[in-house]
Structures are given as C-alpha cells and as structure tokens.
Design the sequence.
C-alpha cells in the first residue's frame, strides 16, 4: 500500500482540484438569470463527484506516467527527484498496467454519475458531449507517456495540462451547475491552467538533462533551460495578472483582494527560479508552486462569496 500511495503522488492532488473549487464556488456565488438562488444552482453531489473524477484523472495520469517512463527507460539513474515505483522495482509494469485499467474504469464511472447528477434525463446533447470529454481526458492522461506516439515525448504535455486542468476544470464544472458559460470566468480558468502548466514546466526544467538523454522531447528540451526560465516567468506572471483583471472586472471591494496573499509565495518562487543555476535543485519548488496555486484558488473562492455566512446557512438548511 505504501508503494501505491507513493505512485499516486499525493502532492499533485491539491493542484488538480484547484480549478474544480474555483468553478464550483463561482457557480455558488453567481446564480444565473434562470436560477436565482445559490441553493438552486449549487449541488453537493456535483461538487463531490467533480472532485472525485478529477482526482481519479490525476492519479491515473500519475500511474500512466510511472508506467510509460518506466518501460521506456526514461526513469533511470539520471532522473532527479524521488524514485518512481517501476523505476525502483517496487511495482511491476504488469501490476501498474492493471492499476491503470482499474483507475480508468472507476474514473469513467465517476464521470458518468457526475453527468447524470448534472443533467439527469434532460439535456441529452450535453450529456453526450461531457461523456466524450471525459473519455478524451482519460485517454489523454494515459497517452501522455504511454505508447510509441506518446505526446508528452513530443512537447505537447503543456497543452493537455492547460486544457484539462485549466479550461475544462474551471469552465466545465461551472457549466455542470449553471448550464451556461460566463465569459468572465475564462480569466481565472486560463490563470489556473497557466499555473498548472508552470508546475509541469518546472518538472521538465528539473529533468531537462535526463529527458534529453532518453529522447523525451519536452518543450524545455526543445527551447533549452535559459528560454524555459523566461517561459516559466511568463506563465506565472500572466496568471497573476489575469486574476487581478478578473477581480477588477468583477467590481471587487477592497477586502475581496485577499487572494493577493497567495502572490507572496508565488513571487518568492519566481525569485528562487531566477537565481537558480542548477535545475536539479528545483525539485522542492514543485510542491511549493502546486500548493501556492491551491492557496490562490481557496483565497479567490473566499473572495468570490459575498454574505458568505448567509449562503452557507442556506446550503446546509436548504441545499441539495
């Protein structure tokens, strides 16, 4: 069990649910024209299964990465960071493959239940669309490193992370509640997506040397470490700016800018990356950036809610 928990890489899970939290609380604090109260738009069932599905996708991605990099030999003595399960021999490739299949099935089942709670027997078109989206997410999580045409080995991993852990996570879950897309929500969706890409980019910066030797042609390998730093700064700084623009356009009061506290660890992270001369020493920054993104999502959602005590009382007394 210890080795399976390590293979699931629990430190990546808070980052994966950041978008779900933002999209869900935005639905709670911004009822639509057709749905006038928070208790009508928000559903604990949707929230719970959205979290469960997203966590399933993240664990599936971690298992698949362990398997794909392990069987390809990418995880070797040159790799920085904790040893992965297949690399260390703690879990066999056959056992990991079975775990990938089981996790895929459970995640798809969770997605189906989530879609049912969101749309019921109505909106058949929406149900089919989100089902296909869920299947695509599962396939993408696996194909990142698994197979001869794994897109993570061709530098497309950043796109997957941005789309599924940013746009789909925030806008998709919000649509499950509101049945419409609020254009303003695109700003935090892009922000969460960029920060998530930043975590992947940091991982690739750390592993640049070993990835180049093993033929894993990430964006960092393609552009080189110096340009990867500039790319990293642009991801984080753009994300920070977009959230501020979101707050301004949302007419936030002064006390609703509490989310700026999350910019303190983000700024410290950028300074550390700027001063870094040895990519191998960036490993601790992965956890820091992931947790900073999670902190930003929590603070932002708190700032989204006005009259928070009344809303919470309504949810517990009259919510579904």
Sequence:
């Amino acid at each position: 069990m210890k080795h399976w928990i390590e293979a699931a890489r629990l430190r990546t899970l808070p980052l994966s649910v950041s978008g779900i939290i933002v999209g869900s609380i935005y639905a709670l604090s911004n009822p639509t024209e057709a749905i006038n109260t928070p208790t009508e738009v928000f559903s604990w069932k949707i929230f719970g299964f959205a979290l469960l599905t997203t966590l399933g996708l993240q664990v599936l991605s971690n298992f698949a990465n362990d398997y794909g990099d392990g069987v390809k030999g990418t995880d070797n003595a040159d790799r920085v960071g904790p040893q992965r399960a297949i690399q260390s021999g703690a879990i066999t490739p056959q056992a990991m493959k079975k775990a990938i299949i089981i996790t895929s099935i459970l995640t798809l089942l969770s997605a189906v239940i989530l879609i049912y709670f969101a749309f019921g027997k109505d909106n058949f078109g929406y149900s089919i669309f989100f089902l296909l989206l869920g299947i695509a997410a599962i396939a993408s999580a696996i194909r990142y490193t698994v197979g001869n045409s794994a897109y993570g080995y061709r530098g497309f991993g950043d796109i997957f992370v941005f789309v599924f852990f940013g746009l789909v996570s925030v806008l998709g879950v919000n649509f499950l509640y509101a049945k419409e897309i609020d254009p303003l929500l695109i700003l935090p969706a892009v922000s969460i997506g960029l920060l998530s890409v930043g975590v992947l980019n940091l991982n690739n910066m750390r592993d640049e040397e070993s990835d180049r030797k093993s033929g894993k042609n990430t964006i960092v390998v393609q552009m080189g470490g110096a340009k990867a730093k500039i790319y990293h700064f642009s991801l984080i700084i753009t994300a920070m700016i977009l959230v501020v623009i979101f707050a301004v356009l949302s007419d936030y009061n002064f006390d609703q800018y509490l989310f700026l506290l999350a910019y303190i660890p983000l700024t410290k992270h950028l300074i550390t990356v700027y001063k870094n001369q040895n990519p191998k020493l960036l490993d601790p920054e992965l956890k820091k950036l992931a947790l900073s993104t999670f902190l930003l999502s929590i603070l932002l959602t708190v700032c989204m809610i006005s009259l928070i005590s009344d809303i919470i009382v309504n949810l517990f007394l009259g919510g579904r």
Summary: The chain has 16 helices and no strands. The radius of gyration is 20 Å. The mean pLDDT is 87.
